[in-house]
Amino acid sequence: MTGVHPPNDLKRLTDWFLSNGDKTVVALSGGVDSAVLALAAKRAFGSNALSVTANYKTLSYQELYAARKVAREIGIRHKVIKYNELESSDFVKNDQLRCYHCRKELGLRLMNEANKFKTNLVVDGTNLDDLKEYRPGITGLKENGVRSPFMELGINKSVIRAIAQHFGLSVYDKPSNACLASRIPHGTPVTYEKLRKIEKSEIIVMKIFNIRQVRVRDHGDIARIEVGKEELTKLFDVDKLAIIDCKLKELGFKFVAIDAGGYRTGGLVVIR
What we know:
This protein is an alpha/beta fold. It has 2 domains: 6-166, 3-Layer(aba) Sandwich (Rossmann fold), CATH 3.40.50; 180-269, Alpha-Beta Plaits, CATH 3.30.70. Helices cover 43% and strands 13% of the residues. It has a 4-stranded parallel β-sheet with strand order 3-2-1-4, with helices on both faces. It has a 3-stranded mixed β-sheet with strand order 5-6-7. The termini are far apart. The model has no long low-confidence stretch (mean pLDDT 94).
């Protein structure tokens, strides 16, 4: 990994914090990006760094667990705030700006926590590679004053993972994830029942096939299973497929399909 030097890269992040204030609130999602950001914030400010995880009904239990675990590893102060995104009609209608509405609300909530913490420095883990995709959520955060140190310093995902691995964070190789609502096609309203069905389905697939990354896309009667391409061969087990077929149908799906193309971001644009 040419040009990557984790101690120096973490120092750049730490120095960024020190040059921008004396306290901060870090949006901690449970992924590797926000974990490395929290690590740098903790090193810069100690107890004057607060990590905040939003449990907004579309966050899976696994992500919430990961956020709590990595906060303990880092030793950073951690707070979980709760609210219900499903109370927002703009979010529930699930159009192309769903992520914008989600992040806009998150930004407001984070700023509220920052006011209580007596700081205006609020940061999230958006990195350089995120610009390669359509991400209206970034705009929603920026409109509320949330800053992205990785973006400002030109740091990409490979550098972030190298830092996390070097400093022993358990999430260093954790696959990227997104909120459960991302499994529902645009234009189909988001409901609590659909979210729970998707979450249960993904847990079942992960456990039975022992895979690390899975999406169960909800196309009404059809559950479309995506797993990482490097794990596709794990699905080539007729007996296990029969179990998956049965269990997902028990959850309410009529048909269960395996996507031969494997997991990819933006996978729901394929089927309307």
